[in-house]
Amino acid sequence: MKKLYFSFTLLILLSCGKTSPKTDMKSANQVNNFEDSIRAINSLMKPEMKESSEENKGLLVKQNVVLGKYKIEFGYTAYNEEKYGFDNPGYLKVFKNNKVIFSDTFLGDHELFVFTLDNKVDNNLFFTLNWGKEACDYQQTSRFYCITTDDKVHKLGDHWTASSGDGYSSRSFEHFYKQNPQDNSSQLLVIESLFFHEHDKKDLIDTIVYTLKENNFKSTRLSNHLKSDN
User: Fold this and answer.
1) 109-126 burial string, b = 16+ CB within 10 Å, else e?
2) How far apart are CA 119 and CA 39, in angstroms?
3) According to the 3-state scheme, what is the secondary structure of 128-184?
4) pLDDT by residue (tens digit) across 176-209?
5) Per-residue pLDDT tens for 116-140?
6) Listing from the earlier edge strand, what are the strands of the sheet with 88-96?
7) Which one of 120, 145, 154, 184 has the minimum C-beta count within 10 Å?
8) Distance, CA of 205 to CA of 171 (rounded, Å)
9) Interhelix angle 2-16/24-59, nearest 10 degrees
């Protein structure tokens, strides 16, 4: 956007200077005015660039969260939205007794957070890694994990929320825990929904079931109206 604004400003300045000068003095003045304008634009843009650079440095600081007997370390390995867009590379590691028992990578944007899910299933610990900006037309993603009682870390799936800037539609998800009465296996249910605020289209709902049996997870999608990868 900054590059477009800069190019657009240059075009305006160039178009304003298309009139043929009548004298060498007038031509020199136009050149000086043009150079002054460029310097003025650059002076306005430099603070923004510096601020963006400082913000990027802040996002590169690794974070740590303690969840019971585990430590979760996460952060970006590089952050530059001009280069990577919303796919800045990052990592997550799980430690127990200062030893890495699990590692994962992701592509994200903006600040990172780890949240522990309130409920536990059979003493297994669920948490999410979250990234994205809280604003219209931006996507916020939550990646679900579970640490089972045998200290094994499972990556489940990515689920996301977003709202259109014009208020036309919103996408969201909720999660629930339950026991499967057929075999007494534990289940995490994630309900994804797409809601049309104008009610001119039918709302869409999908259900994803993560079943924990013998310390392993199986993912089942009951429908795929939203064309998700999970």
Assistant:
1) bbebebeebeeebeebbb
2) 58
3) EEEECCCCCCCCEEEEEEEECCCCCEEEEEEEEEEECCCCCEEEEEEEEEEECCCCC
4) 888 777 777 788 999 999 988 878 888 889 899 9
5) 886 656 678 999 999 998 887 788 9
6) 63-67, 70-76, 88-96, 99-108
7) 184
8) 10
9) 180
The DSSP-derived string for 37-79 is HHHHHHHHHHHHHHHHHHHHHHHTS-EEEEETTEEEEEEES--
Counting every residue written for the chain, the total comes to: 230
Residue found by looking up tokens 């604004």 in the block: 5
> Measured between alpha carbons, how far apart are the two ends of the chain, in Å?
33
DSSP sequence for 19-31? SPPSSHHHHHHHH
How many helices (H) does the chain have, and how many strands (E)? 3, 12
Structure tokens, 210:
């993560």
At residue 95, the pLDDT reads 98
